[in-house]
Structures are given as C-alpha cells and as structure tokens.
Design a protein that fits this description.
- Helix content is 30%, strand content 23%.
- 45% of the residues are buried.
- The strands form three sheets. Strands 1, 12, 13, 14, 15, 16, 17 and 18 form an eight-stranded mixed β-sheet that branches. The chain has an eight-stranded parallel β-sheet with strand order 4-3-2-11-10-8-6-5. The chain has a two-stranded antiparallel ribbon with strand order 7-9.
- Helix 7 packs across helix 8 and helix 8 runs parallel beside helix 9.
- It has two domains: 120 residues, Lyase, Ornithine Decarboxylase, Chain A, domain 1 (Beta Barrel), CATH 2.40.37; 207 residues, Alpha-Beta Barrel (TIM Barrel).
- It is built from ten helices and 18 strands.
- It has 388 residues and is an alpha/beta fold.
- A hairpin with an 8-residue loop joins strand 15 and strand 16.
- Bound molecules: pyridoxal-5'-phosphate (PLP).
- Pyridoxal-5'-phosphate binds next to helix 10.
- The site of pyridoxal-5'-phosphate has 17 residues, from helix 10.
- Its cofactor is pyridoxal 5'-phosphate.
- It catalyses: L-ornithine + H(+) = putrescine + CO2.
- Keywords: Lyase, Pyridoxal phosphate.
- GO terms for molecular function: ornithine decarboxylase activity.
- One of its GO terms (biological process) is putrescine biosynthetic process from arginine, via ornithine.
Length: 388
C-alpha cells in the first residue's frame, strides 16, 4: 500500500521535482509544464479528429494557458473571471472560447458576448432565453445528462445536463429564438474509469442528431464530449491511448464517416500528472495508549487544495522518503475543522519511522488543487504553486 514513486514518474523527472522542492517551504505544488505539453500531444495524437478546449478550471495558471495557447488549444471557460484571466495573457481570439457553464447570469452571458464569444452551453429554457437576449445569433449546444456516476471518481452528471427529449426541445427553441442550434455536449464524470460511459452518451447524441434532422430539419454540427479522461491516481485506469481508440470506435459506429465537429474539454488528464504537492508532517499522535492507528497531521488539507479527498473520492498516491515497516494511518490536515480529515476509511500505509518534519509528496496533484484552496481559512494562506 505504499506508493512506488517511480511507477508514476521517471527517476530523472522526480529528481527534478525534488531538487526544486528542496529549496522551498511547504506546502506547495510544483508543476512541470513539459509534462502538460506531452499530455497535450498525446491527447491530440489519440484524437486527431477533435478540437481541444482546455477546461481552465483545472488550473488557470498563466504558464499553462500560455503553453496551451501556443499549441493551438481552445478554451472551455466557466465564468467571466476565468475569461478575464484567459484574455489577460493575450493572443487568444474569442472564437477559441466556449462558455461551458450552464449556470450563469444574463449579465455574464452579455459580458462574454461583448468580448466576442459566440459559443454557449445550456441545459435549461431560462438560460437559453437569456442567451437569446444577451448573445443574439450565437451558437448554442445543449448538455445532456449521462450515466456513469458510479464509475467516475468525481461525478458531475447529476447537476448538469437535461434529458435528451428536453435537449431536443431546447435546440428547436434555440432556432426559434434566432440562435444557432449547434450541437450536443455531455460530461461522463471526471476521472471516468469506465470507457463504456462514452458509448452510451454518444448513442444518445446520435438519436438527438437524427430526430432533429428528420423531424425538424435541424442539422446539428458538433458533439462536445467533455472531459473525464484519467489521471494517474491509486485506482488504476486504462491508458489514454485505449480511451482514444475505444471512443473513436464508438463515434465511428454511430456516425460512420459523416462525423460532426468533435470537441473535447479535458482538464484533469492534461494537468494532474504534471503536479507534485509537497507537504510536511506537523504532528503524529494516537488517540489512546492502545489505539491501533496513528494520526498523521500534515500541513495541507481539504482547505488548502485537497478538497477532492471529500468522501475520499480521489486517492492521491503519497510518497515519503523513509522506508521500512508500514503502518496503516489516518491522514488529516492542519486546520481546526474536523471535516479536515483526508483519508480515514482508505488506509494508507506509511512507515512506522515517519516523524514530525518529514515531507510527504502527493503525486498527480496538478489539477483541481490550487484553485480549490481557501484564501484564509484558519489564517492559512492559499496553496503556493511553482511552474517548472
Ligand atoms: C463543462 C466541463 N468541461 C470539462 C471539464 C473537465 O473535466 P475533466 O477534468 O474530467 O477533464 C469539467 C469539469 O468540471 C466541466 O465542468
């Protein structure tokens, strides 16, 4: 149950992380942008038919945005603040942006429209009517609900999307309102371990495409397959090449050679593996003289970037340098909030000789950490980040 760091990073790569980390006070995350570049290449090689819209929410650092801008990526943006951040790096035209959040204020839609953005996601009539008023003539795509919440480690599907019959009604209404009914989107859930989830979603999309064409004369042009591609955590997944192969096959089975524009919105799979979060052990204790498990308190927690440990959903591989006999431990953060327990049911094995002051290396933590960090809970500053 201990992590073999070299099954996640080559010795050279980890040595590079560590050499940099050794010069810094914990806690922080170090991100190797070269790994993001490699992940981007791998994704575009696997899906040559797709346009990539990076889901900025995963990590909006200018270093990452600039790299992906230069590689020709597009961007999935969730709020006007992300849009401002994206445009502040310069060199990105608004046709490379999609407003992917289905929950938004009319004035925010207007803000995007005024900045030149013309592609909007929706999943409800009220939002669609807002888009028609605030962003007239724009392209809209409707997000559908998908299955697969059980096999995704960080499910997204219940809150977003609507049933296919409602999606069809919305696309018809979009046309009536003077918008361009552009396509259908879905997100099978983040860190989706069952590739079959895409098969079911693509099949639903196919039905929508056909019915709208046959019954309403609406020819949709685009499928947005969202994110959901895997990072390397403790629970194993197939590799990205297998995802790409299988999902491309599903598309071909349903759409043949007459493929619409395909959009992907990866976040986690592009960024996570490139980050190593480094923390320090603050305290090790037992709750009684005879307690079997030790508690290891460290200087990061749920409020400093590791919120995806909620319900122990994401199990980050943890590396420590000490070796020797392992003991199952409970791992908790440094704040005065009892919700700040990271892993209690899933028992990590850490060496018995682990001591206060030792460092812990949390692997694959490049995505959904820096931005989730609280600004000042218990006075702790937000998680620091460095980009190699
Ligand atoms: C609309 C949308 N697209 C893409 C993503 C990125 O998903 P992932 O990190 O699983 O690649 C998210 C994640 O929340 C999302 O909400």
């Amino acid at each position: 149950m201990t992590t073999d760091v070299y099954s996640f990073y080559t010795p050279e790569r980890f040595a590079r992380f560590k050499a940099f980390a050794d010069t810094k006070e914990t806690p922080f995350v170090v991100i190797d942008t070269q790994m993001i570049d490699e992940a981007y290449r791998e994704l575009t090689k696997g899906f040559p038919i797709a346009d990539v819209f990076y889901a900025i929410k995963a990590n909006p650092a200018p270093e990452i945005l600039t790299l992906l801008r230069d590689r020709g990526a597009n961007f999935d943006v969730a709020s006007r603040y992300e849009l401002d951040k994206l445009f502040s790096i310069g060199g990105i035209s608004p046709d490379r942006v999609s407003y992917g959040n289905t929950i938004k204020k009319a004035k925010d839609v207007r803000y995007f429209y005024e900045k030149g953005v013309r592609m909007f996601a929706t999943d409800s009539e009220a939002d669609l009517r807002n888009i028609a008023k605030a962003a007239p003539g724009s392209r809209v795509y409707v997000r559908i609900l998908t299955e697969g919440t059980v096999t995704a480690d960080w499910p997204l599907s219940r809150k977003f999307g609507c049933r296919p019959d409602m999606a069809m009604d919305l696309l018809i209404l979009a046309k009536e309102l003077g918008l361009i009914p552009y396509g259908v989107s879905f997100h099978v859930g983040s860190q989706q371990r069952d590739i079959g989830a895409w098969d079911a979603a693509i099949a639903s999309v196919k039905v929508i495409f056909e019915r709208l064409k046959d019954e309403d004369g609406i020819q949709l042009e685009m499928i947005n397959m969202g994110g959901g591609f895997p990072a390397n955590y403790i629970a194993r997944t197939n590799d990205l090449a297998t995802y790409a192969e299988e999902i491309s096959r599903f598309l071909e089975e349903d759409f043949g050679t007459d493929l619409p524009r395909i959009i992907l919105e990866p976040g986690r799979s592009l960024i996570s593996n490139a980050g190593v979060l480094v923390s320090e052990v603050v305290l090790i204790s037992r709750k009684s003289h005879t307690a079997l498990n030790r508690w290891v308190f460290t200087d990061v927690g749920k409020f400093s970037g590791l919120i995806e440990t909620l319900d122990e959903a994401i199990k980050y591989p943890i590396h420590v340098e000490k070796q020797g006999e392992l003991e199952e431990v409970i791992i908790a953060g440094p704040t005065c909030d009892s919700a700040d327990i990271l892993y209690e049911h899933y028992k990590y094995g850490l060496p018995l000789n682990l001591a206060i002051g030792d460092r812990m290396y949390w692997l694959s933590t490049g995505a959904y950490t820096t931005t989730y960090s609280a600004v000042e809970f218990n006075g702790f500053p937000p998680l620091a980040s460095y980009y190699l």
